[in-house]
Design goal:
Blueprint lengths: L1 H10 L5 H8 L3 H10 L7 E5 L5 H8 L3 E6 L2 H13 L6 E5 L13 E7 L7 H14 E12 L5 H22 L9 H7 L3 E7 L5 E7 L7
Parallel strand pairs: 1-2, 1-4, 2-3, 4-5
Antiparallel strand pairs: 5-7, 6-7
Helix pairs in contact: 3-4
Amino acid sequence: MSTYILMKILESAPSRYDLGIRLLTLGRLGKAYDRLTSLVKKGDRVLDLGSGTGALALRAAQKGAKVKGIDINPRMLETAQARVKAANLAQNIEFVEMGVVELDKEEAESFEVVMSGLCFSELTEDELRFTLKELRRILKPGGLLLIADEARPRTILKSLIISPLRMFLRIFVFILTQTTTRALKNLPEQVRTAGFDIVSSKLNRSETFLELVARKPGGREK
Ligand SMILES: C[S@@+](CC[C@H](N)C(=O)[O-])C[C@H]1O[C@@H](n2cnc3c(N)ncnc32)[C@H](O)[C@@H]1O
């Protein structure tokens, strides 16, 4: 019953997304985003993939970064714009309705940081491969790739235990974004294969959530 009520609240508008995600993750997602964006520096050019309502973009802009957030969902972007205006950060953030498949339009070596929260798990295998290849190109040498996303547990037992929760999360994301999620398997390996060095890769205890920091080789040390 409480799940039904939560869904009804969330269905009404993406502006409910932040409240919903806070409830669903018991505030842990926000802490993960704080940890990841602590690596962003003033003046960095930052790209936020699947920026949604702007949770990561706002954190980075508050640190003095110049942020470009891209997302395919115009309603999420509208909510993000309103939040940016309310936070008086419009001069630091630009939101663009754009999918990851259009990343090839971005200039080579134009960002110090690329970050993504809960978006990689909404991509198809092909999109994920393409995205990693393009991120390697558009990041400056030494630039950082910061990812927080759903992971697939490594053991069958853990997978079975969390499957009801995952189903709930899939419905939740579908209501908000009309897309579904695919918990990521071996993301650190895929990121390494795409030509990044893994700086840190941290799974939570149930192995359902991954925080990943990777670096494009060369240039800048953080
Ligand atoms: C679960 S939401 C997360 C939003 C935000 N990053 C956050 O953590 O609050 C995932 C977002 O990714 C966006 N998205 C999904 N597929 C995408 C794609 N191919 N290109 C760009 N954005 C995409 C969705 O529209 C949605 O806003």
